[in-house]
Amino acid sequence: MNVERDLEIQWLRTFKSVAQTGSMTKSSTLLNRSQSAISMHIKNLESVLDGELFHREVRRLTLTTLGQEFLIHADNILKAHRSALVMAKEQDLTGKISLGIPDDYAVSFFPAILRAINEAYPQIEISFVCEPSSTLVPRIEKGEIDIGIITQDRTDRGVKIATVPLVWAGYIPYQWDESKPLPVAMYEFGSEARKKITGVLDQLKGGYKIIYSSAYIAGQIAAAQSGIALSMLTKCSVPERLPLVNHKALPTLPALEIAVFKSPAEDKRSALVDLIEELIIKTPFNGDYSFNAQT
């Protein structure tokens, strides 16, 4: 005879954290629990569900089919639990939330986000952190930043809200021809943008030469304005004074997927972070690119 067992909230929090981080060790730090407790929570869930939730790979835990399906239910249960706690307090939502965003998305995304938050939750204070995605992602995973707008490097990292094309910007260097390396200004090493761009630049007949690289858009714009190199920028970040470049020798650049990504850490701000995430997903943005806002 099978005896039904309840799904404890803490088990669900642990499961969601491990699903997001791919690591029991990381989740142990984020949730401030021992690794043995984290492991026991997962085993308890697998016992109740009568199936494995994770593939145990060498470097990372990945979700099984059952795990992927259960993550949807776990997330809904946790959100409902937090909403109930917020309602029970019977008070206006207050608090401080840190929101990270790369500088090349800030102008196009942040004003609409800030306006929407202020209208819906005027008592919430937003601490704005402007850093590249390669820096934001680990800080969000560690719980140092609550939520962020990032360049999505994996489909399971965050909720996609937009697709933004990369474009050539600046001035083609004097005396350059297709047989010579093209001087370019580049995103920082390790970034998703750089990975995608370098794959396309390999198509150039004469190759390319990185003259300048930076994690911040101001430096790339300055390099393009100087005429020493062409920059490859997100279309939403190109200033009006900087011309777009179309040349038969230049390959078409890829697009970047933009996502809202929140910290897996569970603390007193979690309910607020959930609300901000939902608000960002539903916020319409202006611009010449494709958005995936939900209504």
From TrEMBL:
Alphabetized InterPro entries for the sequence: LTTR, LysR_HTH_N, LysR_subst-bd, WH-like_DNA-bd_sf, WH_DNA-bd_sf
Alphabetically ordered keywords of this record: DNA-binding, Transcription, Transcription regulation
UniProt entry tagged with the keyword Transcription: yes
GO molecular function: DNA binding; DNA-binding transcription factor activity
Gene3D superfamilies for the chain: Periplasmic binding protein-like II (3.40.190.10), Winged helix-like DNA-binding domain superfamily/Winged helix DNA-binding domain (1.10.10.10)
Domain (HTH lysR-type) ranges: 7-64
Keyword NADP: no
PANTHER family for the chain: HTH-TYPE TRANSCRIPTIONAL REGULATOR LRHA-RELATED (PTHR30579:SF7), TRANSCRIPTIONAL REGULATOR (PTHR30579)
Family (UniProt): Belongs to the LysR transcriptional regulatory family.
Protein name per its UniProtKB record: DNA-binding transcriptional LysR family regulator
Source taxonomy: Bacteria, Pseudomonadati, Pseudomonadota, Gammaproteobacteria, Oceanospirillales
